[in-house]
Amino acid sequence: MKLEPHFKLWLETEDGYVFGQGSFELLHGIEEKGNLKAAAEELHMSYRYAWGVIKKIGDTLGQPIVIAHRGGKVGGGGAELTETGKKLLETYLKFKSDLTQICSKTEV
Amino acid sequence: MKLEPHFKLWLETEDGYVFGQGSFELLHGIEEKGNLKAAAEELHMSYRYAWGVIKKIGDTLGQPIVIAHRGGKVGGGGAELTETGKKLLETYLKFKSDLTQICSKTEV
């Protein structure tokens, strides 16, 4: 009988849910590509939906997590994480990494 | 900005999902009370539903996880975990405890 542990991770504030795997992947893509449109496309999200996700998190936290670069080239979507966005990403990644490490030790 | 990590844990075999928080609570109750009816009631499950949960897990694993004591007193429901049932409970509890410990270290 081989049993493998699996988990789902998310972050909450006092007000409840803020940040899970989907938003993690989006922020990770923005950090990597410097571009919201490209990050959203890779996750098969529309640009509009992706902005909605980001705006909702920012509203919950009372601080923006992504800054858009306006007035850039056509077809742009240039964007970068704020310090708050980076902190979210790092926090999620840290816990995800620790949980993954524990859950990879299957003994059964 | 205070961020708290939360998680959901479950166990899988090669065939997929087997055991999560609900089944954990049920098995834990059976171990504690030695009685399926009492364990189910505490979780607001019907006796029939609880047996369904237990049977499904046993079918997936190809081994029973709970043995019912038949022919007992009226209003009985006496039951105990098999070795497989105990192993499931212990495995889940071990990982849950490790993940809880990690997720209680909030620094943000």
List the helices and strands and how they pair.
The structure is a homodimer of 108-residue chains.
Chain A (H helix, E strand, L loop, with lengths): L3 E10 L2 E4 L1 H13 L2 H7 L4 H15 L4 E3 L10 E3 L1 H21 L5
Antiparallel strand pairs in A: 1-2, 3-4
Indicate the overall shape of chain A: globular
Determine the mean pLDDT of chain A: 90
* Uncertain ranges of chain A: none
Oligomer: homodimer
Q: How many DSSP E strands of chain A?
A: 4
- Profile the largest sheet of chain A: 2 strands, antiparallel
Number of helices of chain A: 4
CATH class of chain A: Mainly Alpha
- As for the CATH topology of chain A, it is Arc Repressor Mutant, subunit A
Percentage of residues in strands of chain A: 15-25%
What is the number of independent domains of chain A? 1
Lateral arrangement of strands in the main beta sheet of chain A: 1-2
Cα distance spanning the termini of chain A = 7 Å
CATH architecture of chain A, by name, is Orthogonal Bundle
Element string of chain A (H = helix, E = strand) = EEHHHEEH
CATH superfamily of chain A: Winged helix-like DNA-binding domain superfamily/Winged helix DNA-binding domain
Q: Indicate the structural class of chain A.
A: alpha+beta
